[in-house]
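Input (JmjC domain-containing protein):
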Amino acid sequence: MKTFWDGFENVKSRLTDDNGLPMLLKLKDWPPEHDFAEMLPERFNDLMKALPLKEYTHRDGKLNLAARLPSLFCRPDLGPKMYVAYGSTLHLDKGTTNLHLNVSDEVNVMVYVGVVNDEDNTEHYDAIMNAIEVSDCDVPTINRVQEHKELPGALWHIWDAKDADKIRDLLNKILLESGKNVESYHDAIHDQSWYLDRELRNRLMVEYNVRGYPILQCEGDAVFVPAAAPHQVRNLSNCINIAEDFVSPENVGHCFHLTEEFRNLTDKESLVMPQ
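Output:
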């Protein structure tokens, strides 16, 4: 943990790969076993005060069906969970979190955005602007960075749940085009091995008429991800995010369907099953 945090904003302190290049590390689902509210009660209370749509997002929210489960059910771990990752602006085809979908709804809050302290940030800023320009974001979003000088943290792409099978079909098609086989137990989304760069997103639009929602998340922004909606994230800067899950009445059908679907995953896919 110390090594991870030492390298969070100092590239020279980061672990290196076999080629001597700084590694891009991610701390996922922290704390892994303990309740965030018990480990960091003050931070938890601050987060709860800041969350939007409290009727949905609070543990005891009136519209959070997870709070209404009878005691005989195994209650899901709704978090909050912390996600901390180094920025990767120089790799446009690589994601910090690859394409996947969640069983429940989620609100993700960007609580901190930082830049490296021991390198010239000119290249970093140019790479951020390049990433935003090829992300399909709209003009007001781009202006947040260019005119209002907000520091962007992460770039999201979210698709409608109804388009998940079309995305699977495209990714399977690409595998077949490359001469690989598509196994019967394979699921192109659940295995979390794809990041849809601009070329793949354009193919999805041209061949399937499916367009996602690009979202630039700056410090203080909350991003809502509906249950079963395929999504991916790419950190443009070094970021600390906190995610809180909930079960909305609108998407409870998706939650039930996905719970049944995940029962049929292989052991390998179950290891990376989104919470």
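The first helix runs from residue 2 to 6.
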